[in-house]
Amino acid sequence: MDVVYLLLTLAFGASLFALNTACRRLEQRRER
Amino acid sequence: MNDNSWIQLALYLIVLFALAWPLGRWLQGVFDGSLAARWRWMAASERALLRLAGCASDEDMPWWRYAGAIVAFNLIGALAVYALQRLQFVLPLNPADMGAVSPDSAFDTAVSFVTNTDWQGYSGESTMSHLTQMAALAVQNFLSAATGIAVAIALIRGLARHSAQGVGNAWLDLLRAALWILLPLSLVFAIFLVSEGVPQDFAAPVIAHTLQGAHAQTIPLGPVASQEAIKLLGTNGGGFFNANSAHPFENPNGLSNFIEMLAIFLIPAALVFAFGRMVGDMRQGIAVLTAMTVLFVGLYAVGVLAQSQPNPLIAKLGVSGANMEGIETRFGTVASMLFAAVTTSASCGAVNAMHDSLMPLAGFVPLFLMQLGEVVFGGVGSGLYGMLLFAVLAVFVAGLMIGRTPEYLGKKIGAFEMKMVAIATLAVPVLVLLGTAIAVIAKPGLAGLSNPGAHGFSEALYAFSSAANNNGSAFAGLSANTPFWNVLLAFAMWYGRFLVIVPVLALAGALARKPRLAESAGTLPTHGPLFVILLIGSVLLFGALNYVPALALGPVAEHFVLFGAH
């Protein structure tokens, strides 16, 4: 079970990095 | 409401503002670097610690690097807390021989403490070793509070700067928040708590023989005072003991109760003063603080009125007076409702009374305060950045009404900024309402509810309101230490925290890049009574639109059932 929760935690983190990138792209698109 | 309730409230607010004012000045000095410039030893120790942590530079970061650093920092924190709980049985400082925490509970607790929620599905004194309490939970109490402060400061910089690329350095802000604010305050507060009788040791539990003779009672001890101090100052709320601040070892007397309540609001209130100073117009800070205070006093009054009435079921048995079920007799109704309002206005979640036992409409108050987004003073940092989101929302609504481009503090609010505000303000209600809906239709969710009907629904609604808003208090009737509840609540806690933080930092970055516009005749003043009313209205309307249907099914329905039937 530890592996499952480790992967879940990493997925939580990865989704936020994806959100970070998406917000940044949105901002860049607005600037262009 | 009697004189006692007003006197306690007035005394509380006077002492709070008197302490928060100088602390606000200190916060400004810490984060604008003026204190480090004046005291060289401060700057030298910061540089040394940053170098020790492998951080080569303390230069400003663009918002997306700042957000990346915050997310990475908290992700590593969650993994560390999980590992410490799972391995505590082979680690030192475990005199009571605690076994490994179950995987789902360890996961839930790791997310809970990293997100400043401190929701506890477990009972601390019978689950966690001293090392886990100190190195995992108490450390995260500091780091999660530092995260909140850092994000709030980044947003203030976004508003205060103009035509700038960066919002500050995340590592330096985290370090400064922990080193110059949270650690010194916690040290002083922990020593005060020890003086009042709160334990601070590494002892094994004491076995006491009761007067009945036959029963041996196990009395857990440990490093309670040090955890208690940051639990309140960092608006974390996770107790050393299951009974939290209702336990005499966490909160021994009326004085400790008063100081604990002050500790919860101290940094959030000081941050508002710091905001006023850092944007160069203290009237802006006072306006935000006024809105917070009006909301707080109003909802506290509703809570005291509701809790002061007798429970008709108990009154029928010939017992007179206010409902005292779940209330500590050491504190009484007023101090318990004040604590309940303070802890749920902030993102603290410490409790000195069992919210599950409050009268239905008194239980509505902490529930609604959390659902407003905990912006009434709010969590350390999170309260201020949450309220500033509402301020932007308020000027946007006002701009729509009068047909002008909205501005806040001389910054034009455009489409990108409003998209970030929308994500940050709508993410939490979605998590609360969807989570509650899943819990009350799924069998494993229903299995955790200990009451049928409206009160059971309130338990589920409270759990998700508490988790997604990173409060951590519970309607005590819920049995949430199951894989279903642990995973679902962890989801709500994680995204309830960071689906706000990332857009807030994006907003900070976008605002920092904008030039500052001069005030004109068409600018809506954001320091006067009109704006305060607009801000209060935005917060209340937002809460009402999102949650009234759910509240009607919970505490409101329970109130009518209780008083209508009897």
SSE layout:
The complex is a heterodimer of chains A (32) and B (566).
Chain A: H1 2-31
Chain B: H1 3-31, H2 34-38, H3 40-52, H4 63-86, H5 103-114, H6 130-160, H7 170-195, E1 206-209, E2 216-219, H8 224-233, H9 254-278, H10 282-308, H11 312-315, H12 332-345, H13 360-371, H14 382-402, E3 407-408, E4 411-412, H15 415-441, H16 443-447, H17 453-468, H18 483-513, H19 529-565
Antiparallel strand pairs in B: 1-2, 3-4
Helix pairs in contact in B: 1-7, 1-9, 4-5, 4-6, 4-18, 5-18, 6-7, 6-8, 6-14, 6-18, 7-8, 9-10, 9-12, 10-12, 10-13, 10-19, 12-13, 13-17, 13-19, 14-15, 14-19, 15-17, 15-18, 17-18, 17-19
Oligomer: heterodimer
Please identify the structural class of chain B as seen in this structure. Answer: mainly alpha
Low-confidence stretches of chain A: none
Order of helices and strands of chain B: HHHHHHHEEHHHHHHHEEHHHHH
Instruction: Using the CA coordinates, give the radius of gyration of chain A.
Output: 14 Å
Spatial shape of chain B? globular
Count of DSSP strands of chain A: 0
Q: Give the integer mean of the pLDDT values of chain A.
A: 93
Helix count, DSSP H or I runs of 4 or more residues of chain A: 1
Q: How many domain modules of chain B? A: 1
Largest sheet of chain B: 2 strands, antiparallel
Q: What distance separates the N and C termini of chain B?
A: 23 Å
Radius of gyration of chain B: 23 Å
Q: What is the percent of helical residues of chain A?
A: over 70%
Largest interface: A-B, 20 and 31 residues
Shape descriptor of chain A reads: rod-shaped
Distance between the termini of chain A: 47 Å
Give helix and strand order of chain A, one letter per element, not per position.
Answer: H
